[in-house]
Specification:
Elements lengths: L7 E5 L3 H22 L6 E4 L3 H5 L4 E5 L4 H14 L5 E4 L19 E6 L7 E6 L5 H10 L6 E4 L9 H17 L5 H12 L5 H8 L1 H14 L10 H10 L24 E6 L4
Parallel strand pairs: 1-2, 1-8, 3-4, 3-8, 4-5, 6-7
Antiparallel strand pairs: 5-6
Helix pairs in contact: 8-9
């Protein structure tokens, strides 16, 4: 989405092949996005030659590494050292508040959560302060993102999972529990969601799309932050089951068929996405 207005996006990953695969995905997907929208201009997406190259002249830096603070915190320290002083910093974390990973960022007023879902199919995004974010930074994102056909919603106070993912966490929790307890199969849960709510995919198919290793990290984070959840319903009750049954086969948790979906210059000219292919 960020390359759909003629700007430049640089992708950085420790594995160059992963960054190049992301570039190829955008090349294959972007023309369809522009055609469906009926406006916009294909920008340039490149695999950067290292982090310093990716960050040069960037106005927006988006981090999307695995859901582990021990990875995110030192990375943000490195980004802070290399990035332009006026760049906006944003984490794409699915559940962690940006406040929890900003300790090595000198100017915390430019840092926030900016969580995307599954664009171009799902174009909502969460925006949330780290507690010190400059109001002008948040307002800039809320104003500019719709130009890229991304629709931002601001979480008005700190919330693990922001808005949608906080509600989604409860759905995942119960879906995992009914399968872990032997009440239903994953494909049964998915089929009922498709039939009753006319959803194109069910919870297990959605978790497949995110990546099961990432889902595991997220659910364990929720379990740590929510020890008050009822016994037998918290993420911890299915952690062992998930490790044995999901981590061993990270490609799919559901056995249902997932429908095939394609899973201006100015200040918008250059962005850097720090991305990993894990999930």
């Amino acid at each position: 989405m960020m390359a759909s207005r003629g700007g430049t996006v640089r992708i950085s990953d420790p594995q160059q092949a992963v960054a190049e695969a992301a570039v190829q995905y955008v090349a294959e997907t972007l023309p369809g996005v522009l055609s469906e929208r009926g406006s916009g201009e294909a920008g340039t997406v490149v695999a950067a030659n290292g982090l310093a190259d990716a960050l040069e002249d960037a106005w927006l830096v988006i981090e999307a590494v695995p859901e582990r603070l021990e990875i995110k915190i030192p990375l943000w320290g490195e980004v802070d050292r290399l990035a332009p002083d006026d760049a906006i910093f944003a984490t794409n974390s699915s559940s962690y508040a940006s406040r929890l990973m900003d300790e090595r960022i000198r100017d915390k007023s430019r840092f926030c959560n900016l969580h995307f879902y599954m664009p171009p199919a799902s174009n909502a995004a969460d925006v949330m302060s780290d507690g010190e974010t400059d109001r002008a930074v948040l307002d800039t994102l809320l104003r500019v993102l719709p130009e890229f056909d991304v629709h931002p919603f601001e979480a008005r106070k700190e919330s693990t999972g922001f808005i949608f993912n906080r509600v989604w966490a409860a759905i995942k929790r119960e879906s995992l529990a009914v399968v872990a307890e032997g009440v239903a199969r994953p494909e049964d849960v998915d089929a009922m969601f498709r039939l009753n709510w006319h959803m194109p995919v069910g919870p297990f198919q959605m978790m497949d799309g995110v990546g099961l290793d990432v889902v595991l990290d997220i659910e364990e984070h929720y379990a740590q932050e929510n020890p008050h959840l009822a016994e037998g319903r918290g993420p911890s009750c299915v952690s062992t089951w998930r490790r044995a049954n999901w981590a061993a086969r990270p490609a799919r948790a559901s056995t249902a068929t997932t429908p095939e979906t394609p899973p201006d210059g100015g200040p918008h000219a250059r962005m850097c996405l720090i991305w990993t292919g894990t999930g």
